[in-house]
Amino acid sequence: MAKQVINSLDAPAALGPYSQGIRAGQTVYLSGQLGLDPKTGNLADGIEAQTHQVFQNLRAVALAAGGKLDDTVKLTILMANLGDFAQVNEIMKSYFAEPYPARATYQVAALPKAALIEIEGVLELAAQSADPQNEPLEPVKQMKAE
Q1: 3-state DSSP assignment of residue 33
Q2: In contact, 125 and 6? CB cutoff 8 Å
Q3: Cβ–Cβ under 8 Å, residues 51 and 78
Q4: Of 20, 66, 82, 140, which sits most exposed with the smallest number of CB within 10 A?
Q5: For residue 144, is pLDDT > 60?
Q6: Residue 112, preceding bond cis, omega within 30 degrees?
Q7: How far apart are CA 35 and CA 50, in angstroms?
Q8: pLDDT tens for residues 119-141?
Q9: Which domains, ranges and CATH numbers included, belong to the chain?
Q10: pLDDT tens digit string along 79-112?
């Protein structure tokens, strides 16, 4: 199965040798996003602002892949402080409709750029009329979300 690189100018560029997202068939794997502003590269201030920015970044990559956040089937949340768990849950509810995606949440010792939260996701896109298994995937060029 061919892999298709997904990039969005509305999400921060990768901080290392990885892609913002990879599509394989109808599944899209979203790399972990920090609360970085894609225009300035600066980290948002505090857990609330970082969490909102993370979901906005994930949304931008999902849109570049032809999906939306509600196509998410699994999230992994890494937090510097599980004491922020309830606040993150409330913010997450504002970005997803029920049924919510499956999720795992972990407290970690540190995150890149001293971020307070990082979230990665897996999307399952709706099947297209043609069988995507038989069609070669073209790389997606960087695009601006509308």
Answers
A1: strand
A2: no
A3: no
A4: 82
A5: no
A6: no
A7: 4
A8: 999 999 998 633 344 444 454 44
A9: 3-134 (3.30.1330.40)
A10: 999 999 999 999 999 999 999 999 999 999 999 9
Which tokens go with 139?
A: 């790389």
In the structure encoding, which two tokens stand for residue 13, read together? 């560029």
Nearest to 52 by CA among 101, 116, 113, 5: 116
The pair of three-digit structure tokens given for residue 36, joined into one six-digit string: 């970085």
Encoded tokens for 134: 């038989």
Please return the burial class of 109, using the count of CB atoms within 10 Å of its CB with bins 0-12, 13-18 and 19+. Answer: exposed
- The residue count of the chain comes to 146
Concatenate the DSSP letters of all residues of the chain into one string. --EEEE-BTTSPPPSSSS-SEEEETTEEEEEEE-SB-TTT-PBPSHHHHHHHHHHHHHHHHHHHTT--GGGEEEEEEEES-GGGHHHHHHHHHTT-PSSPPEEEEEE-S--GGG-SEEEEEEEEPPPPSS-GGGSPPPPPPPB---
Q: What angle do CA 58, 139, 12 make, to 5 degrees?
A: 30
| Contact by Cβ (8 Å): 57, 12 | yes
- The candidate with the shortest Cα–Cα distance to 19, out of 145, 139, 144, is 139
Q: What are phi and psi of 124, to 5 degrees?
A: -120, 110
